[in-house]
Every structure is written in C-alpha cells, then in structure tokens.
C-alpha cells in the first residue's frame, strides 16, 4: 500500500489489550478544501502533508511529495527514528523547545543520511512519545501544543522532502513507547502484514538506550518489542562504537526462575501481613496461594482506609477466620497496628515479604493496568509517586517487631502462553 492510500480495517487479532477506542478522524474544512471539492478528481493535486488524530492518544502525520517513488511491493525495509535528541534537538539549547521553530538537526549529517536511506528503498517513519501534546480542543481548534507540534513536523518533513510518516503518542496508552502500539498502527496503515517487512535489514534509531545518563531505555525496549535492530544516534549517524550497557531490566529474566518455597498455614487462627511495593504481586499471590488455604483478605485499595481495614479484620477474627492483610505495610509504625490487633486476640502474626525490584514493580503495574485479561480487579495505572512513597517509607521487616516468622517471596511470573507473551514485552 502506498503513502496516502485508503486505510484498511484494523486486524481483530491485536496483541495489545485493551483495544483502542473508536477512532475519530480529525477533519478540517476551509476555503482550500471547499475549492478542492469542486475540482475534478483528475485535476486535483495530492495534499503533501495529511494529519489524522486518534482519540486514544495518537497523532499521525504523512508526507507525500508530488514527485515520490512508489513503495516496494514486498519485503520492505524500514528506517524508523525517534524525534527529539535523535533527528533534532533544540536550537536554544533548552531541554524543552521554547516554540515550534526552536529546533535544528541533531547533527549536520542527519538530513543527508535520511535522504540516502530513502534512495536505497527504505520506508521512513518516526515514532515519538509526546506526552506534552494535548489533544483537547481549545475553542474548537487544536490546542497550542498540538498546533506547535504539527508546525514543527511540517517544517521537518518539508525540508527532507521525501515520503515519510510520523506517529506521536500523546498519553500513557498502548501507543506509548516502549509498548508496540505505534508500530502495530503503522503496520496496519501500510498493510505490512501483507507485503511483509525484512526486519533484519531494518533499523530503529533512538536516544533512550539505557546508557549512563539516558533518561530511560524506552527506545531500546521498543525495538526489542518490535523485533527490529536498534542503534543510538551516535552509532547510526556518527559511526561510533556501541557503548556497553549493563544491568538493564529485562522482563524475560523473570520467566524461568526457581519456584519459591510454599507458604504453609501453621495455626487454626492467625494473622498474616504482606509487605511489598505496589506491583510486587501481592494480590496475585493471595489468590493463588492463601485463598485456597481458607484465609480471608483485607485490602485498603478496596476498603479505602486503615480504620475500615482494621474493623473488617477484627470481624473476621471474631468469627474465627484467619486474615491476610494485603497492603504495602512499608514501615514498622504501620505494621504495629496489625501486630497490636493480633495481640488482642492472642494469636500469632506472620509476615510475607515480597522481594521485587522497583523496575519490576513498575513493569507489573503497567502490564496490569493496560491489559484487562491480566487485571481481574480492574486496577488503574499507578503514578510514579506511589512507588516513590513506598521507597521513602520502607523499612525492612524484622522478627523483633513481633512476627512469628518472615516468609520471603521473590517474584515469579505465573500465566499461560498468551499472558506470558504480553507480560514479557517492555511496558515502561
């Protein structure tokens, strides 16, 4: 399918869940479009740049110069790029641009290299996270941030003057890198599942590579999710040797790990306390391991306050039912409320300690929020402050606090093959 062609119906077998919202295509009516309407089709010139907006949080721009070659009909090669700090940087030197014109090429070699790729038969596409761009209308018009983004990209594509597309994710949705939603949309726009792509000869270039000093590794993760070779701008445009990268979080490292020792019930009536970060797998562990043993669950996300949790837990204990407190319980002060409750009933209190890194917890939370099939309790996306607050308050639990025992639980993924395929992708 060539640039500017009709968009086919999206495939019903998306790997990303939940499915995108019904698309709303942005339309603009002006004198030029009215005049074009009354011009015979055979006499009309194609619009060099078109824009499409998806309500789910994606801006799509396509540039089709009047004199442009037809895309290869099979086994295409893709040259894909991040935008900021990869193709361009601010002319002012600021981290964020001051205006739509505050940009220059990342390096003087960039435009020539991109044009060379086009001449060699590569299809050019940009994938960029643009969370500061708002899709909300302002008095019926584009927001200022969206207008500025369009103006900047129009200038970039006009200067390059070759067939190319840009996909910009504006929210924390399936489209945001490293999630592969933008690639899936691009593939459907150009029928890549029909014509085929030679991924081994393609490339994705981005600056977020997980190197010391990089703000993240989202570009590297995006390339891994797509299955396309990855390079940094320094490697691709300047020919520099790849910098060694170590210690990067890889979800696949948690697919084949030793199973944890089983938790056993020791007393007819007892109180079990969880301690672990949001996203460490506490609730999943309860349903898989403790609910079958007859424990009742108390959870502050559901009950909304600690006094309510204490009240419900007391009612369970009075009914001679053992209780699991499925909260973060990060510090001794919080844990003491539950230890004191156990003392009231003269029963032992035990602790299960969830040993998950911050990176793993953020990954779990993102997968859970974005995939209904892996989110039975309909948990929403967690802000970064939730993880920061736990880290600030966390004190490692000790037996001296009054626990009969402490049961450590390293994270271990549990799920079928479909869930494993989703979970093992990069999400944050």
UniProtKB/TrEMBL annotation:
Gene Ontology terms: biological process: DNA repair
CDD domains linked to this entry: HAD_PNP
InterPro entries associated with the record: HAD-like_sf (IPR036412), HAD-SF_hydro_IIIA (IPR006549), HAD_sf (IPR023214), P-loop_NTPase (IPR027417), PNK3P (IPR013954), Polynucleotide_phosphatase (IPR006551)
Gene3D superfamilies xref list: HAD superfamily/HAD-like, P-loop containing nucleotide triphosphate hydrolases
Range of residues in the leader sequence: none
Matches recorded under Pfam families: AAA_33, PNK3P
Region (Disordered): 1-25
An example molecular function term from Gene Ontology annotations: ATP-dependent polydeoxyribonucleotide 5'-hydroxyl-kinase activity
Protein name: Polynucleotide kinase 3'-phosphatase
Biological source species: Penicillium steckii
